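User: structure tokens for this one?
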Amino acid sequence: MATITATVASPVGLHARAAAIFVHAVTASGLAVTIAKVASAEPAADARSILAVLALDVRHGDLVELIADELTADGEGARVALAELVAVLEAGPGSADSAGSAGSR
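Assistant:
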């Protein structure tokens, strides 16, 4: 099982569009990934589910842990996929999320 932590950089946390971008990236990875807020009593959520991710109420600056299910993870490939998901979470202003919202003003 591969795990990694990330700090959420989006100014709105994992809400609406930022959550959708993250869930899309998880789904595209082909891994069964769970996400949990570090230092929280809340249970981990299926990162492939937009409703589960939104229910976590992840905010800007929160530390989250991503866990790739051992049945779908295959060593180095899982670590690379998780690193790509971390890049999505840690993308700050100027990311695809901000660019999309800036173009609609």
